[in-house]
Amino acid sequence: MGVDGGGSKCRAIIQDAQGKTLGTGLSGAANLLRGTQKAQESVLAAYLQAREEAGLDKSDDSRVIAGLGLAGANLETLSEEFITTWQHPFKAAYLTTDLEIACLGAHKGKAGGVIIIGTGSCGLVASDNGSLTLGGHGFLLGDKGSGAWFGLSAVQYCLEALSGLQPDSKLVAAIQEFTGCENEQALITRFADAAPKEFAALAPLVFLQAERGDRAAANIIQSGVGYIASLCTKLLSKAPPRFSLIGGLAPLIAEHLPSELAKQISPPLSEPEEGAVLYARQCAQSFNIHDVASANEAHSVT
C-alpha cells in the first residue's frame, strides 16, 4: 500500500506484487502537525476504502506492507510519536515525508526534483549533485505560495479593506459571497481557528479574480508565485535531470512562472501515492521484510 497524506486529504492505493492497482481510498487530512492520532485515523480510513474496493477483507491486513508519505514527518518528534503510538494492523509500515514519495512518484524512483504546491508548499531535489529540501515549515511559519497561504492572504486583505485600510476590491466581494460573511466580525469568527484546508479552499477565488483584472488578487499572486519561483531557481541549481510541480495549485502556479523556469518543468510520471508504493517496496527489500516474523512493525525512514 502507498499513502499520500497532506493538509487536506489522504489518498491510499493498494497494488499487488506485479504493480497492478487493486483499490484506492480517500479520507481527510493526515498532516502530523495537525495531530498524529488524526493522521493515523485518516490513513486507516483511506486504507479501509481501498481494501473494500480491492475485494480484500480484515484477514488480509497482515499481508500489507505500507509506505506512508505524510506531511509533517520531517519533524523527528512527530514522526517518532506517530510510529510508537500506532498499533497498525499491517505486516510492516514505513514512514517518510509526503515530499519524498512525491519525488519518487514524479520520476519513477529516479533522480529528480519536485515542488509540492497544495495546502502547503515545499521542495526537494535528489540528484547526483546532492540533495536539498526547502520549505515545509508549516502553515504558521511558512508554506508561502500554497493554497492555505493564498487563502489566508485573501482573508487578511478582506479584513483590512472592510476596515477602510485597503482599497475595496472584487476579491473582497468574492470572499464574502463564498463564505457568507457580511462583515469583519463574521469573517473573524469563521476563520480565527480555521484549519489550513479551510483557507486553501479560497485559493481558486484569488486566481479567478486576478484573471478578471482585480489588482489586490494580482498582487497576492505575484508575491506567492515569486516565492515558488525562488524555490524553483534554488532547486534547479542542483541540475536535476527532471523537475516537476505537483499538487492542486501546481497548474495555476505554472501558468504564472517566468518562461525560463516554466520550460524546465516536466509533468510527473506518476502520482505521489504510487511513489509511496515504490517506497514501501524499497524499504521491504532493504529490511528483508519477508524474513520478519512480527506482524506489527513500524519504521521511520528519512
End-to-end separation: 18 Å
* Unreliable segments of 5+ consecutive residues: 289-297
Shape: globular
| Percent in strands | 15-25%
Total DSSP helices: 12
CATH second-level architecture of the largest domain: 2-Layer Sandwich
Q: What is the count of distinct domains?
A: 2
Structural class by helix and strand composition: alpha/beta
N-to-C series of helices and strands: EEEHEHEHEEEHHHHHHEHHHE
Give me the CATH superfamily of the largest domain.
ATPase, nucleotide binding domain
Radius of gyration: 20 Å
CATH structural class of the largest domain: Alpha Beta
The biggest sheet, with number of strands, parallel, antiparallel or mixed sense and barrel status, is: 6 strands, mixed
**How do the strands line up in the largest sheet?**
3-2-1-4-5-10
Q: Tally the beta strands.
A: 10
Helix content range: 40-55%
CATH topology title of the largest domain = Nucleotidyltransferase, domain 5
Q: Look at the structure and give the mean pLDDT.
A: 91
Characterise this structure:
By secondary structure, the chain is an alpha/beta fold. The protein folds into two domains: 2-108 and 270-300, ATPase, nucleotide binding domain (Nucleotidyltransferase, domain 5, 2-Layer Sandwich); 121-262, ATPase, nucleotide binding domain (Nucleotidyltransferase, domain 5), CATH 3.30.420. The chain is built from twelve helices and ten strands. The strands form two sheets. The protein has a six-stranded mixed sheet. Strand 6 and strand 7 form a beta hairpin. Helix 4 (147-162) crosses helix 5. The longest helix has 22 residues, at 215-236. The radius of gyration is 20 Å and the shape is globular. The protein starts with a strand and ends with a strand. The model is unreliable at 289-297 (pLDDT under 50).
